[in-house]
Amino acid sequence: MAILRLHAITCLGQAETFTDELYVTFNGTKRSLPNMTRGETKPLNDEFSFEGERQLSLFENDGDHWYDRDDFIGRHTIGDSPADRTLEFTGSGNALGARYTLSVSVDPPPQSAVLRLRSITCNQQAETFTDELYVTFNGTKRSLPNMTQGQTRDLDDEFLFSGARELSLFENDGDHWYDRDDFIAKHTITTTPAETTLDFIASGGNARNANYSLSLSVTPRP
To answer: What's the Cα-to-Cα distance from 49 to each of 115, 193, 208, rounded to whole Å?
Structure first.
């Protein structure tokens, strides 16, 4: 298993007179790219998981017309050995004139790790009475104990993740259209093993008084 990452695309020559509408196909997936004109370079952040060898193909999109199929520009075979490459795609036929370079990398699959929340301490509240807290991490929302100033509560929440993800702390104001939940602060968590205490201190907004300390650990996935 490997990860193909697309980093940037440069247009050295267009297929169309005005703007090229591009997409790639790889390992059974179609992914739209930015529209391009000659001389432009645009960053990309697309990722694909794959095994073995697969073909990365670049097309110019002519729309869903029976009389005008999408224009194939070029393709490259991507293997699963780690590499950093700049690939050139040169068109022919209806894509004559198209010339693109695509910066890519092939990386090993990211290491997985477990984030464990150990305890939380309220140094200062966001609300007058009780703070109703939750965290978000890797697409998951998890409620924490209600807190008042000076309290420390044990936690036993765990999250499986890979790469780098943001751990964000919020004070819950309820599902009111007129009063959104108050964001306190966030930290980026990586898979590097760690035992640490992070300070979540609000820098403004409705939670500007909030100050929390969150003890946590990061360990490799068993």
So the answer is: 23, 24, 41
Residue range 103-120, pLDDT digits in tens: 999 998 778 899 999 999
For residues 162 and 146, give the distance between their C-alpha atoms in angstroms, rounded to a whole number.
29
Closest CA to 154 of 204, 216, 88: 216
Q: Which residue has the tokens 């209600």?
A: 146
Q: Please state, in angstroms and rounded to a whole number, the distance separating the CA atoms of residues 86 and 47.
A: 16
- Catalogue all structural domains in the chain, each as residue range(s) with its CATH number: 2-107 (2.60.40.150), 112-220 (2.60.40.150)
Specify the pLDDT at position 115.
98
Return the exposure string of 1-15: e unless at least 16 CB atoms fall within 10 Å of the residue's CB, then b: ebbbbbeebbbbebb
| Unique residue bearing structure tokens 């022919």 | 92
**Higher pLDDT, residue 177 or 68:** 68
DSSP state of 190: -
In 3D space, the residue among 199, 22, 203 whose CA is nearest the CA of residue 95 turns out to be: 22
Strands (E), the chain: 2-13, 22-26, 29-32, 41-50, 54-60, 71-78, 83-90, 99-107, 112-124, 133-137, 140-143, 152-154, 158-162, 165-171, 182-189, 194-201, 211-220
Region 26-45 average pLDDT: 95
* Verdict on whether the full-model pTM lies above 0.85: no
